[in-house]
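Section 5.1 Outputs to date
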Amino acid sequence: MAIASAANAAVLQQASYTYDFKTFYDTSTPYNPFDTKTLLDSVASLSIKDITGGVEIKLTENVTSFPQKTTAGTLVDSLWLNGNWGTVAGGGVTGGATFLSLPSIFKDGGYIYNGSINFAGTGVTEGSSATFTIKGTGVSAYNFAKSSNVPMIELSNVGGIYNTTQSVGKVSFVGTIAATIPEPGTYVLMGLGLAGVALVSRRARRAA
């Protein structure tokens, strides 16, 4: 549902996904709405996982060194998603699907969304999280994470060169699915496998 190129490659069907938000639309170049920059570390993470009857979504803003306008720090005040929407509940959030779930929310980079979430109060502040559910027919983690569905957040109270008259202290970040870090047991099995290959190779050389 995005006009711009999707940020994610082919997505395998899974019961849960985690996103990092590192790439943002550079408001210091307001005349180029497609100009992006990528940070070394993510300013936020998003997890979407299947639960009975729908999904549970958790958004966390990391403690970040991204320029801030005031000493209150940056905060995430909005999240945009594409998928099958149902009833949104919990976490003090508001929002949900657009009218008839039509993709009609136009955002930076040419992305279009069929639903959005607004966070309570000033938003999700650095080091804090908001967790909510979406339940309904056809609601699943995979449906929200399919290849063309790229989540976007709005980071507010942004300062430095990114606080312009056009941005009003707001910057949009797009999410990419985070690389899966293998469990410690996986590393052990890999090590044993490599050791076994080396042993077989050594015996083969001796027999030659």
